[in-house]
Amino acid sequence: ETGVTQSPTHLIKTRGQQVTLRCSSQSGHNTVSWYQQALGQGPQFIFQYYREEENGRGNFPPRFSGLQFPNYSSELNVNALELDDSALYLCASSLRAYNEQFFGPGTRLTVL
Amino acid sequence: EDQVTQSPEALRLQEGESSSLNCSYTVSGLRGLFWYRQDPGKGPEFLFTLYSAGEEKEKERLKATLTKKESFLHITAPKPEDSATYLCAVQGESGAQKLVFGQGTRLTINP
User: Fold this and answer.
1) Distance from CA of A62 to the nearest CA of B (A)
2) How many Cα atoms within 13 Å fall on the side-chain side of residue B17?
3) A85 near A109, Cβ under 8 Å?
4) Which residue ranges in chain B fall short of pLDDT 70?
5) Structural contact between residues B100 and A46, judged by C-beta atoms closer than 8 angstroms
6) How far is B88 from chain A (nearest CA, A)?
């Protein structure tokens, strides 16, 4: 059974640029959630996708957007990057919205 | 608004010295309380789910318990490989599907 995978591992961008992060969910899971984790803090919920539809959103501005594909993989897009967007971005998959969420290794984004 | 507070922020123990980590929460209708372990620079690793007060779960040297206001993660005779940050999260009925995390407890076990 393949776990949650994310790409890339690390990314360096400059302020104002756009970035796309990718996630492949665990086999059999149809729900993907994205979280942002600043250094020394717990993860903060960005949004969740269930069967290609957004299924809930946290307190993040519209420049954070996402997609889920028919194979349940997902993308997180961030436009107009700001310095405060520097963080570890985590993807988690689950069987359904209310089941345990299993996390990928994360993508470390640095905005200069 | 759902909230989670973990204490202490950091804990340093000697190998074999048992202790407990605390997770206090407020939530409108608890769907589940989750414990995760996170190693530096990596994603959280799922440990336990607790659903109702009085429930307990065990895995190796770890035991999680739940009351209506808090959860404890008891670690018995820890080893250096238990060193990690332990995260607590709740999923409430009003917050739908999201997990609300505490800031974590950074645990260090000295040999």
Assistant:
1) 18
2) 12
3) yes
4) 95-96
5) no
6) 9
Distance separating alpha carbons of residues A92 and A83, to the nearest angstrom: 24
* Cβ-based burial of B38 (10 A; exposed 0-12, middle 13-18, buried ≥19): buried
Mean pLDDT, rounded, for A17-44: 95
Q: Which residues pair with residue B4 across a beta bridge?
A: B25
B34 CA to chain A: closest CA distance, Å? 8
| A88 contacts chain B (CB < 8 A) | yes
pLDDT, residue A70, reads 92
**Of residues A58, A106, A108, nearest to B98 (C-beta):** A58
Using the CB atoms, write b or e for B65-89: b if 16+ within 10 Å: bbeeebbbbebeebeeebbbbbbbb
Instruction: Please report which confidence band the pLDDT of residue A23 belongs to, taking 50, 70 and 90 as the band edges.
Output: very high
Distance CA A60, CA A76 (A): 12
The interface residues of chain A toward chain B in range 9-28, judged by CB-CB distance below 8 A, are none
